[in-house]
Amino acid sequence: xxxxxxxxxxxxxxxxxxxxxxxxxxxxxxxxxxxxxxxxxxxxxxxxxxxxxxxxxxxxxxxxxxxxxxxxxxxxxxxxxxxxxxxxxxxxxxxxxxxxxxxxxxxxxxxxxxxxx
Amino acid sequence: xxxxxxxxxxxxxxxxxxxxxxxxxxxxxxxxxxxxxxxxxxxxxxxxxxxxxxxxxxxxxxxxxxxxxxxxxxxxxxxxxxxxxxxxxxxxxxxxxxxxxxxxxxxxxxx
Lengths: 117, 111
Known about the structure:
The complex is a heterodimer of chains A (117) and B (111). With 117 residues, chain A is mainly β. Chain A has no helices and eleven strands. By secondary structure, chain B is an all-beta fold. Chain B is 0% helix and 55% strand. Chain B has strands at residues 4-6, 11-14, 19-25, 32-38, 45-50, 54-58, 61-66, 71-76, 85-92, 99-101, 105-110. In chain B, the strands form two sheets. In chain B, strands 2, 4, 5, 9, 10 and 11 form a six-stranded mixed β-sheet that branches. A five-stranded antiparallel β-sheet of chain B has the order 1-3-8-7-6, with no helix packed on it. In chain B, strand 7 (61-66) and strand 8 (71-76) form a beta hairpin. The model of chain B has no long low-confidence stretch (mean pLDDT 94). Chains A and B meet through strand 9 and strand 10 of A and strand 4, strand 5 and strand 9 of B.
């Protein structure tokens, strides 16, 4: 299957600072990238969907000014958590979708564990 | 009604048995169906995808799709303790804009 990388794999930051997470599709060009958040023992929660060169579409309840998404190319998307607070501590996972013959396949990055102190 | 429904489990099976995981979806126009495995603390891993009615086999895994019944399942033969994980069913909706995930079924394979 296709490979999606994420960096960093974990980060600890102080309250009020910003953190940037990178997501790359290594061996394919992704038509769409997705950002998810997952709290312990809970389901994946879709935060936003982004297409290269256009603004991200945020899910209801997700603050677009707090979670900045930039989809600079077909292989790179970034999520910046601005003015992070302890309640933003979570597991952030990106996912990239590729068009295949007749349909799509979607692959996940390994995730970034964010801890805000 | 949730868009993608799965029994949360836990589903417990003995080692060597067949584990059967089920999923129903509400969008009749959905075309693409996926099964992911997620170990605790890790991100989901794609294990199977299926687009056409019928069965699709890959090693110990068989995905089954019945679009008329809006039902997709995953069978794991010869279950191993290492198969213990949460299995997520996912469906790409009509138009292909969104991937909708079920809440997942926790599987325990007892040695």
